[in-house]
Write a structure and sequence with these properties.
The protein has 215 residues and is mostly helical. It has a domain of 109 residues. It contains 6 helices and no strands. Helix 1 crosses helix 3, helix 2 runs antiparallel to helix 3 and helix 3 crosses helix 4. The chain is elongated and about 140 Å long.
Length: 215
């Protein structure tokens, strides 16, 4: 039975990262998927700026994982060179971008080092897309700024109208409250007058009763 070949240091490290840092590996795979989507949109003539951003995020995620790989090797007492770290980064990047290797990376079962396919072409396409869009980017940017300014004016106008309606309603409420207060005061005065009249009537009635009893 043929003995399986021992994996190289970059492959071993990539597999260890999948087992020890699964969250970071998943983040790399998500970044790669977003980069692939941005690439498709850029190929259709849209989203050159997004493609550049996604490419930068992918590189950042790869570098972060490669640094963790360096730490793993150091913990294991293995020598770590910049060349090894670079090979780890390339293998991680390539596996994340390749349909056939994504599952192997996530499962920690890579068997060979990989090179990012079309990495330079992707970067070149980003530049070309940027140049192709340069002529219209200024006009597009201006349209976006104008549209955003109009949205802000519309929102501010709606806010101002709403606050004005609230102010009018508040003034009317104050007027109603003041009118109700005046009515309440008049009602209280009328009640006091009727109470005084009733008290006087009672006093007269009692005086008449005493007079009748005395007679």
């Amino acid at each position: 039975m043929k003995k399986l070949a021992k994996p190289s240091v970059p492959v071993w490290t990539a597999n260890q990262l999948a087992r020890r840092e699964p969250g970071e590996v998943r983040a790399l795979l998500r970044s790669a998927e977003e980069l692939r989507k941005a690439q498709q949109r850029a190929l259709s003539g849209k989203g050159a700026s997004e493609l550049r951003d996604r490419l930068g995020q992918q590189r950042q995620a790869v570098r972060a994982l490669a640094r963790l790989g360096r730490d793993i090797l150091a913990e294991e007492g293995r020598s770590v060179s910049d060349a090894i770290v670079d090979r780890i980064a390339k293998t991680l990047d390539a596996a994340a971008l390749d349909d056939g290797s994504r599952f192997l990376l996530r499962a920690g079962r890579l068997t060979a080092e990989l090179e990012p396919p079309g990495f330079d072409a992707l970067a070149g396409m980003t530049t070309a897309a940027g140049k192709g869009a340069a002529a219209g980017s200024s006009r597009e940017g201006k349209r976006e700024r104008v549209a955003e300014a109009r949205r802000r004016v519309k929102a501010a106008r709606q806010e101002a109208r709403a606050r004005a309606r609230e102010a009018v309603d508040a003034d009317r409420e104050v007027e109603r409250a003041e009118a109700a207060s005046a009515d309440a005061r008049r009602a209280a005065e009328d009640a006091r007058e009727r109470s005084e009249e009733a008290a006087q009537s009672l006093a007269k009635a009692e005086a008449g009763l005493r007079e009748a009893q005395g007679g």
